[in-house]
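We emphasize that the prediction below concerns an isolated chain of 344 residues; any contacts that depend on oligomerization or on bound cofactors are therefore not represented. The input was used exactly as deposited, without trimming of termini.
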Amino acid sequence: MADVNTASAAFLATIPSPDQGVWHIGPVPIRAYALCIIAGIIVAIWLGERRWVNRGGTKGTVIDVAVFAVPFGLVGGRLYHVITDNQLYFGEGKNPLNALKIWDGGLGIWGAIALGAVGALIACRRRGIPLPAMADALAPGIVIAQAIGRLGNYFNQELYGAHTDLPWGLEIYQRYNPTNPDDFLNGVALGHVPLPDSPVHPTFLYELIWNLGVALLIIWADKKFRLGHGRVFALYVAGYTAGRFWIEMMRTDTANHILGLRVNVWTSILLFVAAIVYFVLAAKRGPREAPETLWSKDVPREDDASPAEPSTEETHADVAAAPDTVRDSAADKATEDPKPDPEK
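Result of the prediction step, given as a token string:
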């Protein structure tokens, strides 16, 4: 009896996993991972729009940029994942078509940022606005979107670490899919049967908390120091990669290695150094961009409109309302002797 109570207490001290990450409405699957990605995108656009307008930019510009950046970013994120984890999709016994199943999870943030930046650049050039300023406005929203996206990993029971006895350890369960026994992702946990390593370090939760901290840091730094020319975005990259470095070292999911380190660890190191260098060099470009440089070229500014010519009635009304000295001066000119007629 004592052993049962001890086991129950240990179980209650851990974080349970969801029973499933996919629900069906008829033949339509509703995936928690996809919903988290969509929610993150919405938050990033909303916050980015507010920050852009507060800096003096045209309202609605962030949505226009997102039309290009989001699809580019999704494709780039998937490409990065497939390239760096190609063993999951190619080779003996693998189905390459699974590389297209983005709904099953697997987006590399750096591929999403790289190709998303290409889409954003296209949109910014069409609008005649500087990409670094747009990146600064979007940076906090991007890292918050990443935090929201990590909740999708929680529903998918993925990206966790090794076994732990800490009270915030994550319980991961065996999921069953009667139509495809090997497809655990789309299965359901019946009876909450824990996997052998359970409970484990919830590394996705560590990253979620770290990302929210980075968002607060760069918003504070931007307000205090009025950063510009891409320095907010550089600070985001440096802050995120600093956390991703140690969190990546804790993960136990399959990954390719270079010189004994996971690929994403090397990526974090290189991008951290590059972000710090850019942050320092960009400071030489001077103060934050002037608000007038952020206004879309195809949207006229209110202060650019030419004043309308006053009508005759308005002119007479102005004279009538003018001070007495002005009216007296006009009357004097009217009563002055006319010029002599040369024929007289």
